[in-house]
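User: Teach me something about this protein's shape.
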Amino acid sequence: MGPVVHHVFFWLKRPNSEEDKLKLIEGIRTLAKVETVEHLHVGLPASTEIRDVVDNSFSVTEMLIFASEEDEAIYQSHPIHKAFVKNCGHLWRKVLVYDSRSVVD
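Assistant: First, the predicted structure itself:
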């Protein structure tokens, strides 16, 4: 089986607060220190074409790549991840997580 992609979307309580956005981005970047994280992408909504299938209402997104579901489980209980939730959880009003496993032939 292929890697696990953990894609998380955050909606800030104060979406117009640049300070809150920067604090969240800084917090997300700490997650790269978890030893099971193979890759971390942090992003903001892109200014792509507005279409019915595009949702750019989120404030910040993170995408983490793990070698396995076991590695993703280690991440979930890791002290760095728990500290991120504790230190940044007050910033967001909504979070959606999409986990997927890569398809391999």
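Now, about its shape. The radius of gyration is 14 Å. The chain has a mean pLDDT of 95. If you'd like, I can walk through any region in more detail.
User: That's plenty for now, thanks!
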